[in-house]
Structure formats: structure tokens, C-alpha cells
């Protein structure tokens, strides 16, 4: 027992002690109620896992797309590893959180000062399972973070003050169809993709991240790769219905995760399906003139955005104004498209607000 003088002395310094513990001294908070208190403030780090919708430079320079002209023509003015003419979803989420876009994992040793904003582990073409891409799937991406924790690049306190964003944009399904997967078997494959996604979310949670966001699947039937057959005039409703099953199962699974969560973790679904559809159905609201037509296309069916022939002559064409197009190429939005999606997410859902508090 403390005597009364010592007790008064201790109590008088308790507010100062709590202030020092709250992170100003870089000390790790171990008590659950203090950890909860931390997340009343905007997170300090963003950790990103997934595919080309969020990749900001991990994909190799010798691979098609993100490092080739005309990618990056709007921002930063040259190819910089983003699958767009400019910024992608990662950049807008980071902006919302008030932090710099996280460093691509590939450049972690070259950008040491920026590691405090988090890290981007996403690679174009990947899925929760292996796809035709040789890039690391999501399980391997999470293993990269585990290794960084072992190397003390990030601490438990860092992870407690971070948000993870998980992007599953459809590469598993593209690979399933490309390898002669049947339409009859599609629903059970969708269930397996969602189950693996949940496994990945739990892996991230166990590393200490307490706010984990997963993107719902966008309307794949509205991507230019699906609408090309109709000269970019209408979405493929059959494909979109199957995507609806994915999103239904994902929402159900995330609801269960939140019900079972015992350590104040929060799982959030970002509704990209309805957000994309809202923008595509009301393009003029966002100054978009061509909602389904891609800005950058190959000159023939064998070519694509960024193609060149053996003499290095470009085999693609770019629209006059990427700012007025929603899609950049056959799969990815323009910076203007992502900006419209971001604006819609801010005004129509609570998901983004839940990232901050």
C-alpha cells in the first residue's frame, strides 16, 4: 500500500504519465482500453495488399502496362508503376487519411524516410490464389509484412495505429474463365475466393492491425474488356449477377468476423459495385462523357494500351481528354474515374469515415 503522501504525488502526475504513454515517448501501449483510445484518432499508416487497382509501383518494369507510355501521362507525367493515367485508389485513400501514399514494397530500401506512412505490397495481376501473373499472391504479400515485423521495420504500436486495405479486383475470376472454368462451377469458385479472402483478413488481424478494409468487387461486366462486344455500349448483366454473389458472400463473412472479433478489431467492406454503378449511370455529374469507352486502346485486337511494334512504333491511341473518360484501358479507371468513385464513397457511405475513427 502507498502512504497518503505518495498516493497524492502519484495522482498529481497521472495525467502527465498518460500523456507520455499515449505515444509521445514512442512507448508501446499494452492495455486494451488504451489501445482502443488510440484509434479515436486518424491512423498513421496505410498497409495495402492486392492487385493493379491499388499497385503504385511494385510490378516489374519489364511487364506490360504500368511502367510503359502512356501510363502516368496525367500524374506524374510519365510512367510510374500505376495502372492508370494518374492516381489510383491507394492514393485517394491515403489522401483521405491525411498521409502520404505508402511506399511500394519494391522501393522500401530507397525511401526509408517515407516508411512511417506505411507500405504498399500490391502487385498487378494477382489474386488471393495464383493467377497467370508470376507476381506474389496475397498470402505471399502478407508474408512480406511478417518479415518486416521480424526485421523490426514496423512495431506492434505501428500496426495498432494502421489501416489495412485489401483489394480483390477480379483476377482470380479472369484466370478461372481463361483456364476453361465452367459457368456451372462459378458459384462454388466464388465461395472459395471469398473464403480465402477471409483467411487473408484474419492473417492481417493477427499481425496486430485492428482496422481492415476490403474492397467489394466492382461491376466486372461493365469493364471495357466485357463491353467491347457491344462497342462499349452496355454492361454484361450475367457477369454482374455473378459478381453480386461474391459481394453478398463477402458482406456476410465480414459481418460474422465483426461479431466474433474480441480485440476491438473492425472489418469494413468498401462498396465499389454500387459506387462504380452510380458514377457510370450518372456520368455528367462527374464531367465524364464516355462512361464505358476506354481512353487508351490498342490499334488492333492483338494490341493494347502501351503496345509498340518491333520498331518501337506505338500500336495504341489515346483519347483527347482522359479527364472526361471513366476507364483508362480495358480494365482500369482513369485518375478522373477513381476521383469520381472516391467522391461518391465520401458522400454516400460511412465506410471511409470509419477508417478515421
Automatic annotation (TrEMBL):
A GO MF term: hydrolase activity, acting on ester bonds
Classification via CDD domains: SGNH_plant_lipase_like (cd01837)
Domain of life according to the entry: Eukaryota
Keyword annotations of the record: Hydrolase, Lipid degradation, Lipid metabolism, Signal
Presence of the UniProt keyword Hydrolase in the record: yes
Swiss-Prot/TrEMBL GO biological process terms: lipid catabolic process
Stated family: Belongs to the 'GDSL' lipolytic enzyme family.
The name this protein goes by in its record: Uncharacterized protein
Lineage: Eukaryota, Viridiplantae, Streptophyta, Embryophyta, Tracheophyta
Amino acid at each position: 500500500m502507498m502512504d497518503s503522501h505518495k498516493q497524492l504525488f502519484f495522482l498529481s502526475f497521472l495525467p502527465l504519465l498518460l500523456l507520455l504513454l499515449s505515444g509521445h515517448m514512442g512507448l508501446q501501449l499494452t492495455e486494451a482500453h488504451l489501445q482502443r483510445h488510440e484509434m479515436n484518432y486518424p491512423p498513421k499508416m496505410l498497409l495495402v495488399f492486392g492487385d493493379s487497382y491499388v499497385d503504385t509501383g511494385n510490378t516489374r518494369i519489364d511487364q506490360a502496362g504500368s511502367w510503359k507510355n502512356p501510363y502516368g501521362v496525367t500524374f506524374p507525367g510519365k510512367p510510374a508503376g500505376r495502372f492508370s493515367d494518374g492516381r489510383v485508389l491507394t492514393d485517394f485513400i491515403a489522401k483521405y487519411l491525411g498521409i502520404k501514399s505508402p511506399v511500394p514494397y519494391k522501393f522500401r530500401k530507397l525511401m526509408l524516410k517515407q516508411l512511417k506512412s506505411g507500405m504498399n505490397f500490391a502487385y498487378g495481376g494477382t489474386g488471393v490464389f495464383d493467377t497467370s501473373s508470376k507476381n506474389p499472391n496475397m498470402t505471399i504479400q502478407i508474408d512480406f509484412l511478417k518479415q518486416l515485423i521480424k526485421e523490426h521495420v514496423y512495431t506492434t504500436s505501428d500496426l495498432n495505429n494502421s489501416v489495412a486495405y485489401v483489394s480483390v479486383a477480379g483476377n482470380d475470376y479472369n484466370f478461372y474463365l481463361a483456364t476453361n472454368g465452367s459457368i456451372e462451377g462459378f458459384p462454388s469458385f466464388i465461395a472459395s475466393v471469398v473464403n480465402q479472402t477471409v483467411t487473408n483478413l484474419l492473417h492481417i488481424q493477427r499481425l496486430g492491425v485492428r482496422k481492415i478494409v476490403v474492397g467489394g468487387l466492382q461491376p466486372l461486366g461493365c469493364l471495357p474488356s466485357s463491353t467491347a462486344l457491344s462497342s462499349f455500349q452496355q454492361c454484361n448483366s450475367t457477369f454482374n449477377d455473378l459478381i453480386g454473389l461474391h459481394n453478398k458472400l463477402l458482406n456476410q463473412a465480414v459481418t460474422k468476423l465483426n461479431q466474433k472479433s474480441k480485440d476491438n478489431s473492425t472489418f469494413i467492406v468498401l462498396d465499389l459495385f454500387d459506387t462504380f454503378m452510380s458514377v457510370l449511370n450518372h456520368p455528367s455529374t462527374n464531367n465524364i462523357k464516355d462512361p464505358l469507352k476506354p481512353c487508351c486502346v490498342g490499334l488492333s485486337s492483338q494490341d493494347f494500351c502501351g503496345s509498340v511494334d518491333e520498331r518501337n512504333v506505338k500500336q495504341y491511341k489515346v483519347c483527347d481528354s482522359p479527364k472526361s473518360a471513366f476507364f483508362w484501358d480495358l480494365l482500369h479507371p482513369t485518375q478522373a474515374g477513381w476521383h469520381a468513385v472516391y467522391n461518391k464513397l465520401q458522400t454516400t457511405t460511412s465506410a471511409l469515415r470509419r477508417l478515421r475513427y
